[in-house]
Amino acid sequence: MDQTEAKRRAIISRLKNSDISAFDDIYRAYASRLFGFALNLVKSQKDAEGIVQEVFLKLWKNREKIDLHTSFDSYLFTITYNTVVSLLRKRSSEKKYIDYVQSIQIPRVADSSVDELEWRELQDQVNSIVDQLPARQQEVFRLSREEGMTHAEIAEALNISINTVENHMGRALKFIRSRLTDHHSLKVLLFISLFF
User: Fold this and answer.
1) What range(s) does the HTH luxR-type domain occupy (predicted)?
2) Angle in degrees, 0-180, between the axes of helices 72-90 and 20-42, rounded to the nearest 10
3) Dihedral, CA atoms, 4, 185, 42, 64, nearest 10 degrees?
4) Which domains does the chain show, CATH number per domain?
5) DSSP label at 175?
6) What string of DSSP letters covers 6-33?
7) Distance from first CA to last CA of the chain, Å, rounded?
8) In angstroms, rounded to a whole number, what is the distance separating the alpha carbons of residues 191 and 196?
9) Distance (Å, whole) CA 42 – CA 50
10) 134-141 CB contacts, 8 Å cutoff, 24+ apart
11) For residue 167, how far is the Cα from the chain centroid?
12) Where do the H-state alpha helices sit in 65-161?
């Protein structure tokens, strides 16, 4: 066990024993990373802040159950992801969230090594791929993912049928997935599982 890992386990062990200073250390080490991760999913600073607060509340409540022999990073990022999904499900009655909730899949483990810069690079890569889509597919995709519009709202705005919107989205997503998976990166696959 290297020195960093030993230090990490020592802090987590202190947390399990209700050491508030260990909790503060963990908050300082992870809060900004978890915020960035949540923000990429919910696209709202206020919601992301609330999610991070809830994650640390859950961490404190369940501190005695933490397993020192599993990845603490994955543990925290998984709690964050599940908290995001719970929030979106609660809002599933609001039209602008319905398609988004249906489009995301829960990964088993969130790769905490995907930092903010890497997420931005992946998003830039997606934007570049989206630019290659036919004009109408691109328009439909951007209205859905960037403006948060439902398929029904897009159909009304563009004066096309919902079925046509769904066909455009299906083709666009298939094209984006195929281009991203060409890279066979674990981080790329995680990105796809979260957003596509």
Assistant:
1) 130-193
2) 50
3) -30
4) 3-93 (1.10.1740.10), 116-195 (1.10.10.10)
5) H
6) HHHHHHHHHHHTT-HHHHHHHHHHHHHH
7) 37
8) 8
9) 11
10) 136/168, 137/168, 137/171, 137/172, 137/175, 138/172, 140/165, 140/168, 140/169, 140/172, 141/168, 141/169, 141/172, 141/173
11) 25
12) 72-90, 95-103, 116-130, 135-145, 151-158
Total-model pTM: 0.50
- For the chain, 196 residues long, give each residue's pLDDT as a single digit of tens: 566 778 888 999 999 999 999 999 999 999 999 999 998 888 889 999 999 999 999 999 999 988 877 888 888 988 998 888 888 777 654 555 555 555 554 444 444 444 555 666 767 777 888 889 999 999 998 888 766 678 888 999 999 999 999 999 889 888 887 887 555 454 555 555 545 5
Return the exposure string of 164-186: e unless at least 16 CB atoms fall within 10 Å of the residue's CB, then b.
Answer: ebeebbebbbebbeebbeeeeee
Tell me which residue of 37, 38, 8 sits closest to 25, measured CA to CA: 8
Q: For residue 31, which amino acid is it?
A: A
